[in-house]
Amino acid sequence: MTDAQPPADRRLAAQALAANDPTGWFEPLYAEAAAGNSVVPWDRDVPNPLLVDWFRTADLPQGARGLVIGCGYGTDAEYVASQGIRTTAFDVSPTAIRAARARFPHSPVTYTVADLLDPPPAWLHAFDVVIESITVQSLPPDVRTTAITNIANLLSPNATLLVIADIHRPTDTTGPPWPLTRADIDAFTTPDLTQVRVETVPRPDTSGRHRWRAEFHRPASA
User: Fold this and answer.
1) Given a cut of 80, is residue 221 above it in pLDDT?
2) Which of 81, 96, 186, 200 could form a disulfide with 87 if both were Cys (CB 3.0 to 4.6 A apart)?
3) Strands across the sheet with 155-166, in order?
4) Mind listing the domains of the chain with CATH numbers?
């Protein structure tokens, strides 16, 4: 009898991390999924309910420029755009971006390939609302500070950041994912990026786990 193989995301992540390439496992995973040999574990047919619920009370300016981080196949990005947000969405995987464009051929979303660890310079302070949902937790902890700093730098004055992530538990010893601690959530706070609220809410599944839903705001320039 042979040992069971690890899930594709963990197998490919281990290979990428051994090569010192923390984002190098996403494209192989999406490519395997496109070939029918794996599944993308975070793919959903409907937008994240925690995102939908947040938008019910979100106070965003008309015509706001929005960015969805690690958009995958685009389900959340399409929902954000449906709320009147001029939406850009990116993923490090070219296969994911091609699939998102094919899935939503008439989409108003601008889908593009980019790396959160090295975002385009033109995006610096360029967005009024940034959505980060379970992407940071998909990166190993040793690049977490870089990812969080880069996210903060995407926000324009008077901008809002929404962070959704699994809550770290003592049993979370291997990844991906690498769920976030309260200290990780607090690390998004900077002198000019303040916490509006941090909630713990049940995951929209049967896992029994909870997620962080944290909102931050960068004030308008004086």
Assistant:
1) no
2) 81
3) 110-113, 86-91, 65-69, 127-133, 155-166, 210-218, 194-202
4) 43-218 (3.40.50.150)
